[in-house]
Amino acid sequence: MEGYETVTVQRWQQGHLEKLTDRIAEEHAVALVYNGISHVVMMASPQDLDDFALGFSLTEGIVEKAEEFYGVEVERHPQGYELQVSIASQRMNELTQRRRNLAGRTGCGLCGAESLNQAIRSTAKVTSSPIPASEALQRAVTELTNWQPMQALTGAFHGAAWCNLQGDIVLLREDVGRHNALDKLIGALCRKKVNFSQGFALVSSRASYEMVQKTTSVGITTLAAVSAPTSLAVQLAEEAGLNLIGFARTGRHVIYTTLR
């Protein structure tokens, strides 16, 4: 199984020092190259990079729909990975124009943003949907650990799961980065043409505003997170009509958006 390395370590525990082997998560530079032009380099886990390329392209607004994403070739290099992505010419023209607008600037706190309006992109409205049943949320939370093999091996992976309305986990993707895990999940779901009103996303991290933006960008109607949301995440979820749930843990969860 790719995604981790085995190393020899020393562990101190209760006054004793012992030598043993440990599994550590791999983290690689992953360059996304669109129609032959390098766009961005991310740090990510090496699994499911085809799903990552599609999900990232959708959630970052590089393409508006999966049909504008023509394919990806994953190339392994000594320094990391290159994802050679082919997209529609109209979307490539827009991406090129966006890159021209960014040329010559350095030191931005949010990469690609030159103003407050650009830093916080508008959030897509989603179709109003009932909050999943408490029993379904609790079932998904209980199942989550069993669906995260890389987290079990290394302790360093986030998980993003798609759950049906009964709370069964249907699909899960893992990555050392929480945003990457969600992008991988979204890419996989869009390949399968999943109906986003017939389930919910569950992530093993906090719910930041970027997680809300990525979720709403493809029409997912409910996002549940194991940890807390941020204030901006709650605000954007309210504006988008997204059901946002935090502290989704065994025996409890908190609904942060207004009941509709």
Explain what this protein looks like in three dimensions.
The chain has eight helices and twelve strands. The strands form three sheets. Strands 8-7-9-10-11-12 form a six-stranded mixed sheet, with helices on both faces. Residues 102-109 have low confidence and may be disordered. The termini are far apart. Helix 1 packs across helix 6 and helix 6 packs parallel to helix 7. Strand 11 (243-249) and strand 12 (252-255) form a beta hairpin. The protein has helices at residues 49-59, 89-102, 116-119, 134-144, 149-154, 178-191, 209-217, 231-240; strands at residues 4-13, 16-25, 28-34, 37-44, 69-77, 80-87, 158-164, 169-175, 199-203, 222-225, 243-249, 252-255. The protein is α/β, with parallel strands linked by helices and 260 residues long.
Q: Supply the number of helical segments.
A: 8
Radius of gyration: 19 Å
Secondary structure category: alpha/beta
Shape: globular
The average pLDDT is: 92
Oligomer: single chain
What do we call the CATH topology of the largest domain?
Cytidine Deaminase, domain 2
Number of domains: 2
Strand content: 25-35%
Query: Could you give the order of strands across the largest sheet?
Result: 8-7-9-10-11-12
Structural features:
single chain, 260 residues, alpha/beta, Ubiquitin-like (UB roll), Cytidine Deaminase, domain 2, four-stranded mixed sheet, 12 strands
Task: Report a brief summary of the structure.
Helices cover 30% and strands 33% of the residues. The chain is α/β, with parallel strands linked by helices. α7 (209-217) links the parallel β9 (199-203) and β10 (222-225).
